[in-house]
Amino acid sequence: MNILQGFETGLATALTWHALMYCFIGVTIGTFVGVLPGIGALAAISLALPLTYYLDPTDALIMLAGIFYGAQYGGSTASILLNLPGTATAAITCLDGYPLAQQGKAPLAIFVTAINSFVGSSIAIVLVMGFAPAIAEFALEFGAEDYFSVMLLGLVAASTLTIGSPMKALSMVVFGLLLGMVGTDVNTGQFRFTFGLFELADGFSIVAVAMGLFGVAEIISNIRQPQGVIQKVGRIRMKDMMPERGEWRQIVRPTLRGSAIGSFVGALPGTGPGIASLMAYATEKRISKTPDRFGKGALEGISAPEAANNASVQSAFIPMLSLGIPGDAIVAVLMGAMILHGITPGPNLINSEPQMFWGLIMSFWVGNLMLLVLNIPLIGLWVKLLSVPYNLLYPGILVFICVGVFSADNNVFDIFVVLGFGVLGYLMRRFGFPATPVLLGFILGPLLEENFRRAMLLSRGDASVFFTSPISAVFMGLSLIFLGSVFLPGLRQRLLRRAPVEMNEDDD
């Protein structure tokens, strides 16, 4: 199936009444959680995941994806009006968005971010349409050793490219891999790491793990904030939103540069929209002839990050749909949702489920058009949501989490699992251990083990197959480079510290 045929198939799927309805529900929820600080798209998707069990897999994925990219739109609203990023990825928008609001240009800033978000998403969607099928076609030539190597590269890259300590991220990947081993061995049928609990025979529920690590942990982290964000915002008029001719010239090039940066960064494992928006902002400030304007209300300071932010969200679907490798935690949950519906993401997805693949991509266009309608005329409504007291909001969310995880398998044990992982996720935050690598390792672990054992079986136990296969050798080499970037700087510093000591001993 070529791109034009896929385009036609996708439109036929995305424009059905039920797909449009679930797309609208998804982007509306996404905008809602994006506006409210402290919830985030990941917690919202984890909460909505059990509800999708009763939906068609395509409709379910359209809705969950709508929550994902809808939250990026909503996050900029609170950043501009109240200097509070609704999502972590919108934090950069605060730097110039809030000063613009203080200057009475809040309507202009909101309009610019909405347009930039749409442009960035549109450019990335075109790349997904072009690159995902090409990568998937190439990946059909992969053997078991190649799949193992590319998954290993994804996990290593997600650890070494993350913000914070790479060593902590690597340790969390290993922890996630261990969690993925809990349950029944596929080959032997033996229980592993169940500790006598029959409830763990099928392993940990991905819904419980995701809800605990991100949803419950988020609630515990914000439990000390009893009040909502109450602040009066002036009336927002449509005519105040339109940029003047000079302002259009200010935002066009930053928008295109931000879209390019976000599209590239989003397709890399372990990066995500936060890093993309930061890189776009730093690039604009560096190339600007008047960098001192940044932080004081520069339109470029909101144009580039918002375009990069939304472009990276859409391009993150390239490795997941074409290779079956999630780039960040949210995409990992989306991939888990597909697996729960009996669909395996990867090279065969385009051929085996063309309706789902192309329908999802076309729904991106539909969803982004809906978001323009939601985010420009309804700004006042979204702002009023900020006055909801947290002591009413978070208990309600916690109840829905428990009900959702129970309804997945009608298993009370899963409620204790989600609460346990919630406490664990909170402690990980307190001590600086990232939770995203845990979820990536947990989801990719069984696939990694399966392909490793298959490769070893076909090669009769010869581990050199991972380096003799050309494709596998390239990915293994890249993994070693990423690992070297973590360990070599520390080793070099130790050698430099030891060298003066040895020289002093020789002098004595």
TrEMBL record:
The record's annotation in InterPro entries points to:
DUF112_TM
Q: Which UniProt keywords apply?
A: Membrane, Transmembrane, Transmembrane helix
**Which parts of the chain span the membrane according to its record?**
19-49, 61-82, 108-135, 147-163, 169-188, 200-220, 323-344, 356-380, 392-419, 468-488
Pfam families recorded = TctA
Ranges for domain DUF112: 20-440
Return the protein name.
Tripartite tricarboxylate transporter TctA family protein
UniProt organism field? Pseudooceanicola marinus
